[in-house]
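Batch manifest, entry 17 of 40.
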Amino acid sequence: MRLVIQRVRKAKVTVPGNGKVVGQIGPGLFVLVGVKKGDTLADAEVLAEKLLKLRVMADKEKKMNLSVGDIGGEFLVVSQFTLYADTSGGNRPSFINAAEPEEAKKVYEHLVSRLKEKGAKVETGSFGDYMEIETELDGPVTIVFTTKGPEHLLG
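Output type: structure tokens
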């Protein structure tokens, strides 16, 4: 799995056409989730724990010492298969390494459910749909987590 995590002041996801806001948060983390072939529910659990403990929120001295939970913040979690784009064969990306949608959805939803089970405030995008995303970045602070199985947390 691959997560691109951005600290935000606020973020919002809208599905065009009907203009429906499907997810919206105030201060917290905007998380893009890529699922590759072979990723497991255990990978999602490892990253959920890492997200919950990630100390990138500012304390009173403006130091990154606090977690999202410490500040009463929120997560906006959006699936993004393009995180596994491969351009090694040319300029048009291939997504052959991304998990099939059915499998990716299971792993993505497991990540979201683990965050919620641990008491996190979580909003989501609309899996598989085209979305318009608005973010107001804070910092900027951007972190990437990648797994190659639960024992190989790279980020």
